[in-house]
Amino acid sequence: MARHVIVGGGTAGWNAITTIRESDLGNSSIVLVSNESPYSRMVLPYYLSKEIGESHVFTASKTRLEDLNIELKLGKDVKGLDTKNSKIILDDEEGIEYDNLLIATGSSPVKPAIPGSDGQNVHSFWTLPQARAVTSKIKKNTRVTMIGAGFISFTILNALVSRGVDLTVVEVEKRILPRMLDDEGADIVNNWIVSKGVDVKTDCRVSSIDDFENEKIIKFDDGTDLKTDLVIMATGIKPNIDWLSGSDVVLDDGIPIDDFCRTNIANVYAAGDVAKGLNIVTGEREIHAIEPTAVQHGRIAASNMLGKEIQYKGSLLMNILDVFGLEIASFGSWNEEGSDKIIKKNPVRPSYRKMVFDHGHMIGAIAIGLGDDIWHTNDIGMLKGLIYTKSELVEWKEHISRNPFDIKRAFLASGSVGKLLPETLVGSPSIPEKNISVSS
Ligand SMILES: Cc1cc2nc3c(=O)[nH]c(=O)nc-3n(C[C@H](O)[C@H](O)[C@H](O)COP(=O)(O)OP(=O)(O)OC[C@H]3O[C@@H](n4cnc5c(N)ncnc54)[C@H](O)[C@@H]3O)c2cc1C
Q1: How far, in Å, from the CA of 104 to the mean position of ligand 1?
Q2: Where do runs of H (alpha helix) occur along 169-307?
Q3: How high is the pLDDT of residue 68?
Q4: 3-state DSSP call for residue 179?
């Protein structure tokens, strides 16, 4: 019986487990080693807003994992990998042998070396314990300052404002969402969140976070300061690969994987935030630290651990946010220098489109619009489909250029639907998780 060992019980690890079990019905041994119980980081904003309770954060209960016949090593850290003997080493020195290993250890937040960034009431918002800490410390009118105005920071804006806090967002770059939007897009979103009562300070560098009586004082390079009660640092993440240094797995600011989610070692796979996988648009290997990539990597890696030889087409870099009813999306290579692009901004509504082309194929897009505009929500899906399917749009570019808010016709005429409908990631439709069981 093959022995699959999965390190990390987040999105990639959990999807690998369900993929193995939906296919092998229990005819292999699976060991899950994770320092946390399996849960989804993506739902933590809903826990913060109190829309869901803590039990809903977890993706699988211990009973469910036992029902699926998973040997559990939870609350354990893996500290080393011996590929010659196909064995991982846990923090308590226990060695676990594998036939196939999946590394799905995700990423961790990084804080810049600012004096005071480890002080009291300064938090990251990445793990459940961190979410618990923030959730318990805020109440109506608490002054919260978020340092960093990137994607993760924006995933918790709605929750913070719904809890009635007095929110300021601080960003070192000249614009908010610098890796998700261009200047024009960021400008629209900036005005929108300011109109909803959020204070925004861009182009300002924090020099220290000090304590004075019961307050925090954030000091900036330009000599100004800001008083606040609680600081949330959302200043980037790094892949959890330190435990692999000294192993034979090739590391390069992440773990490079091939089109089968395999590392340089034949029976060692990697998936999710830790893995440098194929970008479907550019063909480069890079980390896409987003949920859809973790799901896809986890399922592809698991299929190949079962010996199915399933090739991955690559992941589409995408970020989608709903901020106070404004839907904001960007896909693929929206930021190419000197690119062939169509841009349209509606001066009377918060509405913006940018579509970037390479020889008649759309390779990137930004779409911003109100969520209650049904066409906008639909268009987000269609723009994603056009890029993902690499549909030929030579004959449609002029139409799109004249009517940038009419994507539907190009989407239908280019045959994108026909390409997307029959597509399955791992060769067959997935089974709803609750229907997966092992034969007794
Ligand atoms: C607040 C928040 C909101 C988000 N919202 C979105 C969103 O809206 N859309 C989106 O696409 N993405 C979102 N993300 C990002 C998304 O959650 C991640 O991309 C995803 O969780 C990556 O999955 P993963 O399995 O690679 O890693 P993780 O989910 O981080 O799981 C890795 C697991 O491995 C464990 N581990 C690490 N090292 C070791 C070790 N040495 N030994 C044992 N166990 C170890 C970790 O503790 C963890 O349990 C959000 C993230 C956060 C924090």
Answers
A1: 9
A2: 183-195, 291-305
A3: 96
A4: coil
Cβ 272 under 6 angstroms from ligand 1:
yes
Q: Is it true that 122-235 and 325-418 share their CATH fold? A: no
At 227-253, the pLDDT tens digits run 999 999 999 999 999 999 999 999 999
CB distance 104 to ligand 1 below 6 Å: yes
Does the domain at 325-418 match CATH 3.30.70.120? Answer given as: no
Structure confidence at residue 337 (pLDDT): 79
What's 342-407 look like in SS3? EEEEECCCCEEEEEEEECCEEEEEEEEEECCCHHHHHHHHHHHHHHHCCCECHHHHHHHHHCCCCC
- Does CATH number 3.50.7.10 belong to domain 3-38+57-108+238-315? no
Distance between Cα 33 and ligand 1 center (Å): 15
Is the pLDDT score of 117 beyond 80?
A: yes
In the reported structure, the alpha carbon of residue 342 is separated from the centroid of ligand 1 by a whole-number distance in angstroms of: 35
Q: Taking the domain 122-235, which CATH number applies?
A: 3.50.50.60
Q: Show the tokens assigned to 252.
A: 């390069």
User: Where in the chain are the domains?
Assistant: 3-38+57-108+238-315, 122-235, 325-418
